[in-house]
Specification:
7 strands; alpha+beta; 2 helices; five-stranded antiparallel beta sheet; 165 residues; two-stranded parallel sheet
Length: 165
Amino acid sequence: MGAIAVLRWQQYLQGHAVRGYCIHPISFPSRFVMTASNRLQAQEVLDIARRQWRGTCTACAPFASSGWNSFPGTVSDEALQLLGALWLPGDAEPTLEEHRPPGVDQWSAEAPIALHFHPCNRCQVWACKACGKPFLRYTEYGGYYEDRRIRELDPGRVDLGEPGA
């Protein structure tokens, strides 16, 4: 099962590579230009969120959601730039433990963005090419489907607590 998941992850990364640039690209520090092995630490993700958080522009409006939503099927991800990932193939498997208040669904807007817990610990960090607004992306692999999800990376919702702490 692990080998299949890694293969799918590699296919996902290849299928969602950054394609082109906008006329006025957002200047991200060179550290945040995505490479095949750009692993981000939780604190770096929070720093990106704090530095880049802003209102939604027309380019990223289709992706804007305070909770996890399925990636819009009618919209291309051309407006987004991949910055990095919290987990990469070959890393130790991250925990499947979730961190959220009782009665709150993990996909809802009320769920914290708990970067050391599932599903955030397997996310990629993307930003709008036009305005720089940050997003988290996660692909849920079911038995017969793949559900690509996206959520705004709101620094006010980020929780850096770790499992067992």
